[in-house]
Design goal:
- The chain has about 725 residues and is α/β, with parallel strands linked by helices.
- The protein has four domains: about 190 residues, Orthogonal Bundle (Hypothetical protein af1432); about 220 residues, P-loop containing nucleotide triphosphate hydrolases (Rossmann fold), CATH 3.40.50.300; about 160 residues, Rossmann fold (3-Layer(aba) Sandwich), CATH 3.40.50; about 80 residues, no CATH class.
- Helix content is about 45%, strand content about 10%.
- A seven-stranded parallel beta sheet has the order 5-6-4-7-8-3-9, with helices on both faces. Strands 10-15-14-11-13-12 form a six-stranded parallel beta sheet. A two-stranded antiparallel sheet has the order 1-2.
- A hairpin with a 3-residue loop joins β20 and β21.
- α4 packs antiparallel against α5 and α4 crosses α6.
- The radius of gyration is 28 Å and the shape is globular.
């Protein structure tokens, strides 16, 4: 570019110290190229880097920079151009390059701030790419520098790399988008905030972590009690380490609950990553309610500074400047995150969501309890898992006690060669199923049955069931449900673990939030009739360490009312169907295979909606609409409210005074309860909610120190209680 044009400024710096636009375009192109080389797309990302900020070479944008720094902008009189710069490079790409090349680069340039756009959409209006190209064309005609200066730096690309097909084009574009967005963020940050840039990195590399982990496991095995369970856990570890030599791809780790699959899976992942030069391990967990335990175990092994947690329920006091930065783009060797973060990012459109995607490439991903992916989203999730393993150098490990046969998934390599023998060796419980699966047991009957048990856990299907049964239990019984905020639940789970460790009497009534991954060990467990996977997970909280002289007892019962309609009800119906078969073994691996075949047949939506949006008219893709519809958790059906518990009052007062800020909102995540929309509306009508800032609500009704938000007790009219 012939004139000195600028990309970024720093307050109180002279014009000579601003960042030249050409320097920024060059740096972003190089970074993006290096990121995308890992999936054969370096030149595409290079071109996107040169195009993305071309619109800054206009009177409008250069004048904007001068005005923002209190300088004279008369040299840049208005010529009809706009300071909205992102669409100009998109227009140049479409004008000068053939489809789909130009269209692909247009998505990237136009979306690098606002997010990937739809190609056309009545709903998104001017945000659709077709409309934004018109604005870009107008700006293109008014560039202060000749666009050929940029064109001369573009590299020839005739077609997408061989990995790209019609049905996976949208995934490839997101990966390119991630490379561009992260490169842009990093270069801008390096110019504006060098101290922040210097805070990045500094983690141990994957080889050092693997050595640390192996030594830690060796020590744990030496000091473990000589029980059958610990012997089998050691065998599982050895099997994982042996299979880590296999080439990257899709693997399954089917280990009964209590078999140590978290640690054995990590042993596989680290050894595999070292052997094949993979850059990081990403541990994906289904629920925020259990992520703390896994992250805590790994932090004890590797040190807090080497484990990056990225989820909504993170305690900000655990964060450092370095960990916050690493969570932005997952540029660290060990990431612990949730299904929500992982899959919604892979189907996302926002730049902040997609920024991390290129750092999934050439990594090991452990999907813990893969069967908990919502069936309505199973098809697009399976497709993206297949894509990661086929084309992006990712090794995926499906780690679960109840290995599902996910429809459409490529055939995984089993890490455990003889799972049936393993299940037999680790059988520490008896599952007792009533002969009559039609007649329910009342809560009062169930409470009387459990009262003689010194230590007992009962898991039910809903918050209301949990509340009703808890009210029938003796004083001192503990309650666990999602009506308690995250901080409250963590305190109760810690209390339960201590009581069990100390041999104290401990009775707990809980919803299914304790089933996947919460490391507690009861001699007796009761489980309301539910899907076979839920019953197996409940059994994993019984005699978990195998210390009992006899098998732990798991009692399945028919609750007073069926599971809520939908997925839970279908799981219950399929389990009832199988339990009616003669000699059915609820703990055999083959039984889970049969169960999931029946279950998925009845519930899976084969993604026709997402195929229409993302594949049908490819490369004309509806990125933004698809992203808005891909929700692991239906946030439209729920409304978060803050509660007064522990230290929350301090943060609520700050929110009330100065509004939402990043750090404050991170703290308040620990004090949030999600209410069904109808409950929220009723509570608002009855004055149980306080809007402490527009759009942010605090529960003003009762917050019980045992059961949490009191939506079923004091303060509600009698007619409200029947709706719980």
């Amino acid at each position: 570019m012939k004139n000195t044009l600028y990309a970024h400024t720093i307050p109180d710096k002279t014009e000579e110290e601003w960042q030249p636009l050409e320097e920024h375009l060059q740096a972003v192109a190089q970074r993006a190229h290096d990121f995308a080389q890992l999936f054969q797309s370096g030149d595409w990302a290079w071109n996107a880097g040169w195009l993305h900020d071309l619109g800054k070479a206009t009177n409008a944008f250069q004048g904007y920079l001068r005005r923002s720094n209190d300088l004279d902008d008369s040299e840049y009189d208005s010529d009809g151009s706009t300071s909205n710069h992102a669409s100009t490079g998109a227009a140049l790409a479409v004008k000068r390059l053939q489809a789909p090349i130009g269209q692909t680069l247009a998505y990237l340039s136009a979306g690098h701030h606002a997010g990937l756009p739809d190609w056309y959409s009545a709903d998104s209006g001017a945000a659709a790419l077709q409309m934004r190209l018109r604005e870009g064309e107008a700006n293109l005609a008014r560039l202060l520098a000749d666009a050929t200066d940029v064109e001369q730096n573009l590299r020839a690309v005739s077609k997408p790399p061989p990995l790209v097909k019609r049905d996976n084009f949208h995934i490839w574009v997101r990966m390119l988008f991630s490379c561009l967005v992260d490169a842009d963020y990093l270069d801008t940050e390096a110019f504006i905030d060098r101290q922040k840039t210097q805070s990045r990195g500094g983690f141990q590399d994957i080889k050092e972590l693997a050595i640390t982990f192996s030594r830690w496991l060796d020590g744990k095995e030496r000091n473990a009690e000589p029980t059958l369970v610990n012997k089998v856990r050691s065998q599982i570890r050895r099997a994982c380490e042996a299979k880590a030599e296999k080439r990257p791809g899709l693997f399954s780790l089917a280990v009964p609950t209590g078999g140590g699959k978290t640690l054995s899976g990590m042993a596989f992942a680290l050894r595999h990553a070292v052997k094949y030069g993979q850059r990081r391990v990403i541990y994906v967990i289904p629920y925020t309610s259990i992520i703390e335990q896994t992250a805590g175990i790994l932090a004890d092994i590797f040190g807090t500074g080497n484990v990056i947690e990225h989820h909504s329920n993170l305690d900000p006091e655990k964060e450092t400047a370095r960990s916050r930065l690493a969570a932005e783009n997952w540029d660290a060797p060990l990431i612990v995150t949730t299904n929500v973060q992982f899959f919604e990012s892979l189907h996302g459109a926002k730049s902040s969501r997609c920024r991390k995607l290129h750092n999934i490439v050439n990594s090991v991903v452990i999907l813990d309890e893969a069967q908990l992916i919502p069936p309505k989203l199973l098809d697009p999730c399976v497709q993206v898992v297949n894509e990661l393993t086929r084309n992006y150098g990712v090794t995926v490990v499906l780690s679960t006690a109840t290995q599902p046969a996910l429809p459409g998934l490529d055939e995984p390599q089993p890490i455990i060669d003889k799972p049936l023998e393993l299940y037999r060796e680790l059988k520490r419980t008896e599952i007792n199923v009533p002969v009559d699966l039609q007649t329910p047991t009342s809560w009062s009957q169930l409470a009387e049955e459990m009262k003689p048990c010194r230590q007992v856990l009962c898991i039910v299907n809903s918050r209301r069931d949990c509340y009703d049964l808890f009210r029938q239990m003796p004083e001192g019984t503990l309650h666990l449900s999602a009506l308690m905020c995250g901080e409250h639940r963590s305190e109760v789970i810690a209390k339960i673990k201590k009581m069990l460790h100390d041999g104290e009497p401990c009775r707990v009534i809980s919803t299914q939030l304790v089933e996947a991954g919460v490391d507690i060990d009861f001699p007796v467990v009761y489980r309301a009739l539910a899907g076979l996977d839920s019953i197996a997970q409940a059994a994993g909280r019984c005699n978990r360490e195998g210390r009992l002289d006899q098998r732990g007892q798991v009692h399945v019962f028919v609750p007073p009312k069926s599971a809520p309609p939908g997925i839970l009800r279908k799981g219950e119906d399929r389990a009832r169907e199988l339990f009616s078969l003669q000699d059915f073994d609820a703990q055999a691996p083959a039984s889970f295979t049969r169960y999931f075949e029946l279950f998925y047949t009845s519930v899976v939506d084969h993604g026709s909606c997402f195929k229409d949006l993302l594949q049908k008219d490819s490369p004309s893709v509806q990125f933004r609409t698809a992203a808005s519809q891909f929700r692991i958790i239906d946030d439209q059906a729920q409304q978060p409210v803050f509660v007064r518990w522990g230290k929350s009052e301090k943060h609520l007062d700050e929110l009330r005074r100065i509004g939402p800020k990043r750090d404050n909102m991170r703290h308040l995540q620990r004090f949030t309860v999600n209410l069904p929309r109808w409950t929220f509306n009723k509570a608002a009508d009855r004055g149980f909610l306080e809007e402490i800032w527009p759009g942010f609500w605090c529960w003003a009704g009762g917050y019980d120190r045992v059961v949490g938000v009191d939506v079923f007790g004091a303060g509600w009219a009698a007619e409200d209680l029947v709706l719980g």
